[in-house]
Amino acid sequence: MDVIARMIVGVHPLAGFDKVLHYTVPEHLRADTVEGVLVRVPIVNRLHLAIVGEVGAPRDFPIEKLKAVAEVVYPFPALPPDLLRLARWMAGYYACGLDAVIETMIPAAVRRGAALKQEKRLAVARRAADDELATLRRRAPQQARLYEFLAQQFQPQAKALVLERLGLGAAVVVALVKRGLLREELRRIERVAYADDWAEGELVASQPHALNPGQARAVAALESDLGTGKFGVTLLHGVTGSGKTEVYLRAIHAALAHEGGVVFLVPEVALTPQTVARLRARLEAIAPGHRCVVWHSHLSEGERLDGWLALATGEARIVVGARSAVFAPVRNLRLVVVDEEHEPAYKQDETPRYHGRDVAVMRAKLTGARCVLGSATPALESFANAEAGKYGLLQLLERVDDRRLPHIVVVDQRIEAARQRTLPTLSQRLVDGMQARFARREQTILFINRRGYSSSMQCRTCGHTEECDHCSIALTYHRTDETLRCHLCGHVRPAPVRCPKCQAPDIRWRGLGTQRVEEAVKRVLPRARVERMDTDAMSKKNRLREILRDFRAGRIDVLVGTQMIGKGLDFPNVTLVGLVDADLSLHVPDFRANERTFQLLVQVAGRAGRGDRAGEVVVQTFTPQAEPIQFSRHADFAGFAAAELTQRKAFGYPPYRHLIQHQFRGRNAEKVGFFARQWAKRVEEVFGQRLELRGPAPSPTEKIKDEYRWQLWYFTPAVTPVMPELAKLRAEFAWPDDVIEVLDVDPVNLG
C-alpha cells in the first residue's frame, strides 16, 4: 500500500518537545485533516494534542509501524496556513522552538480541546389540537402547564430555567417529547467580552465624523491601498488628538467592503474597552451584522475560546486586542492596524520573545494584507523605514476641529527647590493650575512613572539604604500598608521606624511615587476627589474599568497614575496634565532613553485639551535643557528624530543595525561570568567580523530573584542570516544545568 493510499501527516505535538512526528490518517478523518488542524495522536500510552504541519511523508519513509491519528478536534484549521508559516518564521527569527510559538498562538482552552458551553432549550414541536390539549389538561395537568407556557414564547427557552420557574421535573419534558409536542435542542452559549457595554460614556457617535483635509487624504490613500489587495506598510504619524482612530475606522470599513478580515492591536488592556466600544457603535451603523471579538490575556478562558471559535469559523471578521491578538485566526485578512506602535508593551518578555508590531508586519506580508502603524511618536525604527521608502508615510499634523496643542510649561525643579527651601513634590505652578481647574470644574491628570510612596529608605545618620535581599535594587516604601517592597521579585517586609544598621530614628524617604503624589494633591486640594491608577490600586477586579468610567463621568477631579494613563485614553474635560518627574526615564543605561522620554512627554501631554477647552501641561524636571524635553515642548518629532538618528548612526545602534541581547543568569555569580566569557570567545572564533560583540559584562541590574545576570550584545546588519548558525552553536555548547541563557532579538529593555 503506497503513501498516498494510507495518507501520512507530520504533526507538531503540544507536549513540551519540539519534534515532528508522523501518523497515518484513518479514512473517515481524511476529509477534515488538512494543514493546521488540531488532532489527538497517541504518544507512548496517552493521547496528546498536536497540530498537523504537513500532509505527506518524506521519501523512503518507513510507514509500516506508524500509529494512526485518533481524532480531529475541530473540523477547521486551528492554525490557518498564514499562521503556520508565521510560526515557522518566528521560530527561526527569534531563536526558539516551534512548539513554544504554536502554544503561544493557540489559547490554552483550545490546546486542551475544551468543549463549547452549551445549554438545553425547549420549544414547541407542533401545535396541539383543542381536544388533545383538553385531554392533557385533565389527565396530565403539569404537562399541559409546561406546553401552554412554551406555546406563548417566541423563541426556545432554557430548559433548566423553565423547569425551575414552573416547579416541574424533567419527566414532564420527557413525556411531552414522546408525544411529539415539544423538542429539545442544544444551543451554544457564547461568552462575549465587554458585552455589558460598561462604559456608557465611551460610546461614540455611530455616524462617521466629517473629516478634515489631512484625515481625508489619509483615508483616500488607505482605501486605494486596500483596493489593490497587495501587501504594504503605512506609517500613520499624527499628533495627539489628530483623529487617527477615525482614519482606522474608515480603513476597517473599506477592508470589510472587500470581504476582508481585520486585526486591530492596542498596547494596553486599558485601551481595549474604549476601542471596542467605538468599533461596535460604528459597525452597528455602517456594517450591521459584523461582530467585533475582544482578545487579550485578562479574559476568562471561556471568553477566549468563544472569541477564537467565532474568528476561526468566520462568524466574526474583526478582532481587537493587545499583543497576542496578532495570532487570532482571522479569515481572509486584509488589514492589520497597530495603534501606538511605538509602545514597548508590544514586546513579549517571555519565550518566544517576539515584538507584536514586527510580527504584525510579517503576518500582513504572508497574507498580502495592508499593515497600518499609527502613533504620534513613532518608533525610530518605523520612522527610518518610512524615510527609506520601505514604508509609506501619512501625516496628520493638525488636531481635530483645529484644536490647539496644549501649552507646555517647563518648571526647573532646581530653582523651585531654592525658592521653597525644600524639594517640593508639586511646584507652585502646578498647584496653582490644579486649584484653578478645580474651581472651574475641570479635570487634572498627574503622571509619575513610579508606584509606591518613595523610591528608597535612607538613614541620615549612617547613610544606610534598605535593599532587597534577592535583587540588587533599593526597596520602595509603600505608605498605605507601611511596607518596603521590591518591584522586581515582590519581596515585602515591614517598614522600619529605626535604621536597621545603626538604630538611629532619623530615616529619610527619598524619591517620589504615586502614593506620595496622591498625598500631596489631597493636601493642596482637600475637597477634591482624587484617585490613584497604578498596579497596586488596580489589584481589585474591574477597578480599572470603574476608575475610567468615573473619571469620564466627572466624578473624579484629579487622577494620579503611572504610564497606563498616558496611552491613548481620551477625556475631553482634562485641561491640565502634570508630569511630576520627567527625568525618571531619562537617566537610565539604555540607548533608547532619550526616545522613551520624548515619547512619554508628548503622549502624556496629549491627554490635555482634547475637548473644547485649551489644555496646559506642566513638566517638572531637573534637566530642562535635555533634548527630549526641549523638543517635546513643541511636539517637534521631526526635529527630535533627526538629532537622535544622527547619534544612533554614529554609534551603529538600531535602526542602522539589529541588536541581539544574550543574557546569562544563575545563582553563582562567578560561574555565570565564566561561562559568559567562554561563550563570547567561541562566538568570536566562529563568526569573526560577521558579528560585532560588546561584552560580556554584568547587567545594569546585576541580581534579580537571587540570580546573577550577565549580558552580551551582538550587532548585525540582518538577523536572518546569522540565527541558524548561532542556534546551532548554542545547541553544541556545553552549558551547565545551573546557568540559563536567553537570546532576545530586537530587545526593548536592556536592564
Structure description:
- The chain is of the alpha/beta class and 751 residues long.
- It folds into five domains: 3-79 and 102-111, GIY-YIG endonuclease, CATH 3.40.1440; 118-188; 200-400, P-loop containing nucleotide triphosphate hydrolases (Rossmann fold), CATH 3.40.50; 407-454 and 511-647, P-loop containing nucleotide triphosphate hydrolases (Rossmann fold), CATH 3.40.50; 658-745, Alpha-Beta Plaits, CATH 3.30.70.600.
- Helix content is 33%, strand content 22%.
- The chain is built from 23 helices and 30 strands.
- The strands form seven sheets. Strands 11-12-10-13-14-9-15 form a seven-stranded parallel β-sheet, sandwiched between helices. Strands 16-26-25-17-24-23 form a six-stranded parallel β-sheet, with helices on both faces.
- Strand 19 (476-478) and strand 20 form a beta hairpin.
- The longest helix is centred in the last third of the chain and has 19 residues, at 669-687.
Residues in β-strands, percent: 15-25%
Q: What's the alpha carbon Rg, rounded to whole Å?
A: 30 Å
Largest sheet, order of strands side by side? Answer: 11-12-10-13-14-9-15
Q: What's the overall average pLDDT, rounded? A: 85
- In the predicted model, the low-confidence regions spanning at least 5 consecutive residues are 195-205
Query: What's the main sheet like?
Result: 7 strands, parallel
Extended strand count: 30
Report how far apart the termini are.
59 Å
Question: Under CATH, the topology of the largest domain is which?
Answer: Rossmann fold
Helix content: 25-40%
For the record, what CATH class of the largest domain applies? Alpha Beta
Number of helices: 23
Please tell me what the overall shape is: globular
- Structural class, judged by helices and strands? alpha/beta
In the CATH classification, which architecture of the largest domain applies? 3-Layer(aba) Sandwich
- How many structural domains in the coordinates? 5
Give me the CATH superfamily of the largest domain: P-loop containing nucleotide triphosphate hydrolases
